[in-house]
């Protein structure tokens, strides 16, 4: 179903209609390089790049690297890789807030000269204690009315490294009684001695996010600065700086949308870092992580993530989405693109007693019934096969259409077999099942169309490849792991979020490459993990075929 424009698209369309900014549409995605991108960032990326794509505009990639103490090139590289993977392109417009440190410094000087900024010698604690409350005005700093010349000289000295970190800040002089706390003389520059990953030790003062962001938008010609709702209260400051600093008829404008929040999922970079650092997961790309690198390794496709974002949409309503929607999106996408293959995860040996011992035949099977263009392949059939243990019952209930003594089932793309007997070990476990096959039921054979109720997947025992299968599940078993006052979110880690088993897969998978997607028939969607080698195949379960979580509840 085609949806109408979302509220941001409606704004853009109106701007195009009225000829604002001469019909120019320019957005940016502004990650801070202090962690890996996650599914929440994908929501912002799909909007920023999506708007530019849809309306013939441009989208910049701008690293918001204003805090040298937390940032790293490792993150810069991963962020670029993840955006490209999602299918977006910033062309040659890769920018860094640090590229503008010189111009931002000039803007600060300009504010000082015009009496709109002052150096405050108080500590951050003292400044905080004077901020007031939303209902009570703040107390003006004793330094608020410092002469311009003194401010200029102190700011210069701050940047020359003449004062220790934390000893002085530059504040915008706005309104200590404003009902908006962000307007009560916000700090716009602080002293930091930590070397910056791009500018080294050139700067000793660094702009705060609020001072850098809108100004960078302006330097880059960004028309629509799209960000999440928590910045709504920062908008008056954004606009104040636009008004004070930006001359000419072009002015960037900020619009806020609802951030993504998913149940059973943590989307805080700080907490994700904690999961990595404390070894709760194997790394940022652990397939249980909501990071884009983790989702990619898990087998999510870029299309599934884009479709998911399209389906939840962009509004001003704060809400938590069901992670089941994300799982649905990948299931739907993989249904279209994944080859159907056979894999048995919990093997039970079946011997087809009337099938010649020395015979192997190659049977044809289609790769994807949803898409004829994906063609077909052949799979070996022989006297000994594996089926899933749960597909046989000695004493089945009514309506059990799988294998049981005397019953018939179809083996997918092969024959109908009948169970004649079975063998148990001393402990009563079933170890082998004996069947006979009916040659006439082969595809193209005279009885190919014979009806039986159950169809089972299987692999030929001597031909199957042993494989490591990583069965992933949700990382948390609580819908809101970070939402408990007296319990730490790691207490809600699902102990069954990873189960590693040995399974048997059809031999065609020998040639499967890293990240190839498959549907293990009747089981779920899987992909080849990068740990996979020619000698040992490793598969990740992306999602089961059905949503087991909603069935349990
Ligand atoms: P931090 O707390 O480190 O600032 P952040 O998640 O906001 O974390 P940024 O690198 O600043 O990280 O985010 C880049 C962009 O992605 C911002 O525009 C931000 O609004 C957007 N973004 C971050 N998280 C989400 C989310 N959950 N849903 C939608 N957009 C998000
Ligand atoms: Mg942020």
What would your notes on this structure say?
The strands form six sheets. Strands 10-23-24-25-21-22-11 form a seven-stranded mixed β-sheet, covered by helices on one side. The chain has a seven-stranded mixed β-sheet with strand order 19-16-17-18-12-15-20, with no helix packed on it. The chain starts with 6 loop residues before the first helix and ends with a helix. The protein folds into three domains: 16-257, Rossmann fold (3-Layer(aba) Sandwich), CATH 3.40.50.620; 269-339 and 467-552, Ribosomal Protein L25, Chain P, CATH 2.40.240.10; 343-457, Ribosomal Protein L25, Chain P, CATH 2.40.240.10. Strand 17 (416-424) and strand 18 (430-438) form a beta hairpin. The protein is 26% helix and 23% strand. It is α/β, with parallel strands linked by helices and 553 residues long. It has helices at 7-18, 39-54, 73-86, 101-113, 124-129, 148-159, 209-220, 235-245, 269-277, 292-298, 302-312, 323-337, 548-552; strands spanning 26-29, 58-63, 94-96, 117-120, 169-172, 187-191, 205-207, 224-228, 253-257, 339-341, 343-344, 347-352, 361-366, 376-381, 384-388, 408-411, 416-424, 430-438, 455-456, 459-460, 465-472, 498-505, 517-520, 524-528, 537-544. The protein contains 13 helices and 25 strands. It is elongated. The protein binds adenosine-5'-triphosphate and magnesium ion.
